[in-house]
Design goal:
325 residues, mainly alpha, MetI-like fold
Length: 325
C-alpha cells in the first residue's frame, strides 16, 4: 500500500510539472497583460518599467521556475486585473464551485444508480423505457441549452426559482455556504441539475450495462440455483460487482464536473472559480489562468488516487501490489 501511494505521488508530481509547463507556455501567447493594466496615456518608459516589475522581461525558464517554486508554496502571484493575490481570489471563489460540484455529483449518484439498477432489472417495463428516453435527452443536449431551458421554465414562466446568483450565504469563517439558507438552497437547484444531468445519465447507462452483464454470469445462475432471494442476488452480489467501473467513472466525472463547471457558472452567473477563469481569459490575467489549471490538475490527481484506493474496499480481489498496480 505504501509503495503504491509513493508511486502515485511521484506520478502526480510529474503530471503537475507538465501541466504547469503547458499552461505557462500556452498563456504566454494569449496577449500582453500590460495592455490590460495601463491606459492609453501611459508612456513607453512606464510600460517598460511595469514589465520589469512583473518579471516579464526575464528569460522564460526563469519565469517558469519562479512560478513553480512560488506555486508549491501556495503563492500564485498577484492578479493583473484585481490587484489582489490570486490565492486569495481562488479561496474566496472555491466554496461556491465545490459546493455546486459536489451537490451535482451527489444528485447524479443518488438518481443515476437507482435508475440504472431499475432499468437493468426491469428492461421491458415502460418506466425503464422512459428513463432511457430521458437519458438520451441528458446526453444529447448541451449543458448551456439545458440551463437556459430550466431558467425559462422554472425561473421565467413559473417563477419558482432564481435564475442567477448564489442567494444568501452564511460565512462560517473558513467557508461560505448557501446550504444553510432557503434562498441559497433555491439558487443551487437549477445549476446543480444542469451540471449533474449529463453525469446522471452516464452513470445510469453504465450501471444498467454492468447489471445486464453481471446478471448473465455463472455465479448469479448458481446463486439462483441455491435458492437465494432475488433481493440478495440483485443487491448483495450483482450490484456490488458493478461498483468498480462505476467508481472509476464517478471519480473521473467528479473532476470533470469541477473543471467544466465554467459553462454552468456562466449561464447562472454563479460566483465560482469557473466564472473567475473566464474573466481572467477576457482580461489576459495570466496568474489566475495558470493557477486555475494547476488547481484543476491537482484535484484530478487527488481524485484518481482516492478512486484507486476505493477499488480495494469495494473488491478485495484487487491488489495494489505488483506490476499491475
Amino acid at each position: 500500500m505504501i509503495g503504491f501511494i509513493v508511486r502515485r505521488i511521484v506520478q502526480a508530481i510529474v503530471v503537475m510539472l507538465v501541466v504547469a509547463l503547458i499552461s505557462f507556455t500556452m498563456f504566454r501567447f494569449v496577449g500582453d497583460p500590460v495592455n490590460q493594466m495601463v491606459g492609453v496615456e501611459t508612456t513607453p518608459a512606464e510600460r517598460a518599467a511595469l514589465r520589469d516589475d512583473l518579471g516579464l522581461n526575464d528569460p522564460v525558464p526563469v519565469q517558469f521556475w519562479r512560478f513553480v517554486s512560488d506555486a508549491a508554496q501556495g503563492d500564485f502571484g498577484v492578479s493583473y486585473q484585481f490587484k489582489r493575490p490570486v490565492a486569495e481570489l481562488l479561496a474566496a471563489r472555491m466554496p461556491a464551485t465545490l459546493e455546486l460540484s459536489f451537490v451535482s455529483a451527489l444528485f447524479a449518484l443518488l438518481i443515476g444508480i437507482p435508475m440504472g439498477v431499475y432499468t437493468g432489472l426491469k428492461r421491458d417495463h415502460w418506466l425503464s423505457k422512459l428513463f432511457l428516453s430521458v437519458s438520451l435527452i441528458g446526453i444529447s443536449l448541451p449543458t448551456f441549452l439545458i440551463g437556459i431551458l430550466l431558467i425559462f421554465v422554472f425561473a421565467v414562466n413559473l417563477q419558482w426559482l432564481p435564475s442567477f446568483g448564489r442567494g444568501q450565504v452564511v460565512d462560517l469563517g473558513f467557508w461560505t455556504t448557501g446550504l444553510l439558507t432557503v434562498s441559497g438552497l433555491k439558487a443551487l437547484i437549477l445549476p446543480s441539475i444542469t451540471l449533474g444531468l449529463f453525469q446522471m445519465t452516464l452513470i445510469m447507462r453504465l450501471v444498467r450495462a454492468e447489471m445486464l452483464e453481471v446478471l448473465r454470469s455463472d455465479y448469479i445462475r448458481f446463486a439462483r440455483a441455491r435458492g437465494l432471494r432475488d433481493r440478495t442476488i440483485n443487491f448483495g452480489h450483482a450490484l456490488k460487482n458493478t461498483l468498480v467501473p462505476v467508481i472509476t467513472i464517478t471519480g473521473l466525472q467528479l473532476g470533470s464536473v469541477i473543471a467544466f463547471a465554467i459553462i454552468t457558472e456562466t449561464v447562472f452567473q454563479w460566483p465560482g472559480m469557473g466564472l473567475l477563469f473566464l474573466q481572467a481569459v477576457q482580461n489576459v490575467d495570466i496568474p489566475i489562468m495558470a493557477a486555475y489549471l494547476l488547481m484543476i490538475a491537482f484535484l484530478f490527481v487527488v481524485i484518481n488516487l482516492l478512486v484507486d484506493l476505493l477499488y480495494v474496499v469495494v473488491d478485495p480481489r484487487i491488489r495494489l501490489t505488483g506490476p499491475a498496480a
